[in-house]
Write a structure and sequence with these properties.
1 helix, mainly beta, OB fold (Dihydrolipoamide Acetyltransferase, E2P), 6-stranded mixed beta sheet
Amino acid sequence: MSDPYDDPRVTMGDRIRFDEVGDRAKGRITNVEVFTGMGNGWKYDLANVAVRQSNTQEMRNQAEVIATPTNLVAQLKEQRPRTGDTLDIELIDLRKTAAGTAKIFRVETTKAEPGQIPGQQNLFGDGAAAPTPAPTAPAPAAPDDDLFG
């Protein structure tokens, strides 16, 4: 029998984790709700998401971010991102503390323009039309393609 921890059916789904410095996600918020699982915070459902994890970039049609680390929660509480806004989160430091390791984030919220059509945002900041994500699982971006501009 194979190891149950290697079973490909057990995944994190569309959840984005921030484990390494440089991990980043940027997308348009489609839903915000309170999260009271392992720590209290918020769950953000995102659309048209640029994701960088372990130095690999990809576009996803949708993803979710569970925001429970203290530094992340404090910044989100101050910025109060809402449905339609663009949320950009990047893990910028891991600091050793007496209680373990603290994750330090950079968070930027871009408020939605009045009358903006959801899903038509250009997340790349280069003035070009926003790319339309493929309906299937996207391929990793080429090393020279920076999805974050």
